[in-house]
Design a protein that fits this description.
By secondary structure, the protein is of the alpha/beta class. The protein has 13 helices and 15 strands.
């Protein structure tokens, strides 16, 4: 009889264990960034931000619709290439991810957004700034940083009104991001009464800029704006020094990384560079992002480059919408995500407008002193 009772109890325990296991649900979060190529240091920064958030959420325990959730990160490399970006997006769709954080670049985020839209999968970019990303009307596309209209506009006004630049030259790398931010900057300079003396073009893989810089040197600019990434911005600064060009060097978030001094091989002078991060942290948000950066360095042994805190917030915003909706099914939590209001992230409060842009997006202006970023101001 005792043996029979033990068998019954054991069977009951196994049944209960099976029920408990059945209640646990796997939720897949996709992430895409360049972890190969010239932008790999920025892509890895973003990917680690996503891993940080996933690890933390799993450690805390997440319940969605009464079920315990295990979050799984599916990370893909787009190498900053639009074709590879769309292939990565399709791979995530085929893997039936519940949501996507990324891509890092506008040039990959924009074509990928159509694939996510067609599949009905929410996409939150932590760093794509081209206005076109949310202007296409895809209801699955969101971002938690300011767009190029704000970024380029603020930098243009700052160049004219604060730096007091009298003659301004522009260079862009012909990517969606580089062209977009350069266009908005130039428009803002002219609106503020500034003078643009020349606009030259390069690529996102160039290292020799002697021809275009020689052209611009003849026009004696006191400020050069570059629309592109730090992997090109660094060598540009080195070329400027070799040619004896002492102009201020300005750019958007693409150059505003911790690695820029290294990429310029020490060519930049203190306070020569002015750049803007397409996000702004002040007050309590600055305390929380500073704490995140310390924890990030302790966990991974590297400094935050730019957007890891925004990736961390993007993951948390997605999961918070799932929790609130009581479902990780994209169709069910997407309307909740779209109505996100005053979500308290480490980078500040997050509210999406009708296009999926962050409302009241802030920008942080930086310069460099002693080879390190030094914050100038937060503007809105």
């Amino acid at each position: 009889m005792q043996i029979k009772m033990n068998l019954i109890v054991g069977a009951a325990a196994l049944a209960l264990g099976g029920v408990a296991q059945a209640q646990e649900m796997e939720v897949k979060i996709g992430h895409v960034a360049p972890v190969s190529g010239t932008g790999a240091h920025l892509g890895k920064d973003n990917e680690l931000g996503a891993k940080f958030a996933i690890d933390e959420l799993n450690a805390k325990g997440v319940m969605i619709g009464g079920k315990k959730v295990k979050l799984v990160l599916l990370a893909e490399d787009d190498a900053s290439d639009p074709k590879q970006g769309t292939a990565a997006a399709q791979k995530l769709v085929d893997s039936k991810v519940n949501g996507v954080v990324g891509h890092l670049n506008s040039g990959t985020s924009i074509p990928a957004s159509k694939i996510y839209f067609d599949a009905g999968i929410p996409q939150v970019s932590p760093s794509a700034t081209d206005v076109a990303y949310t202007a296409k009307g895809y209801k699955t596309a969101f971002r938690i940083v300011a767009n190029d209209g704000l970024l380029g506009g603020a930098l243009g006004r700052y160049a004219v009104n604060t730096v007091k630049a009298k003659s301004i030259a522009v260079i862009d790398d012909r990517t969606a991001y580089g062209q977009g931010v350069a266009k908005e900057f130039e428009k803002s300079v002219k609106a503020a009464g500034g003078k643009v003396v020349g606009h030259e073009y390069t690529t996102d893989k160039s290292t020799d800029f002697s021809i275009i810089l020689t052209k611009l040197k003849a026009k004696q600019p006191d400020l050069i704006f570059f629309g592109g990434m730090d992997a090109v911005g660094g060598p540009l600064l080195l070329n400027m020094k070799k040619l004896g060009i002492k102009a201020k060097f300005m750019g958007g978030d693409g150059i505003c990384s911790a690695k820029l001094p290294e990429l310029s091989v020490g060519a930049m002078a203190d306070e020569q560079v002015i750049c803007a991060e397409a996000g702004g942290v002040e007050g309590e948000a600055k305390k929380s992002t500073d704490a995140f950066k310390e924890a990030f360095k302790k966990k991974y042994g590297v400094e935050v480059q730019i957007y890891a805190p925004y990736v961390y917030d993007a993951v948390n915003v997605l999961v918070a919408a799932m929790v609130k909706a009581g479902s990780a099914e994209p169709a069910k939590y997407l309307p909740v995500l779209a109505k996100t209001t005053d979500y308290k992230g480490i980078t500040g409060n997050i509210t999406f407008d009708a296009k999926g842009d962050i409302k009241n997006g802030a920008l942080t202006l930086f310069t460099y002193k002693g080879g390190k970023r030094d914050q100038i101001a937060v503007v809105r």
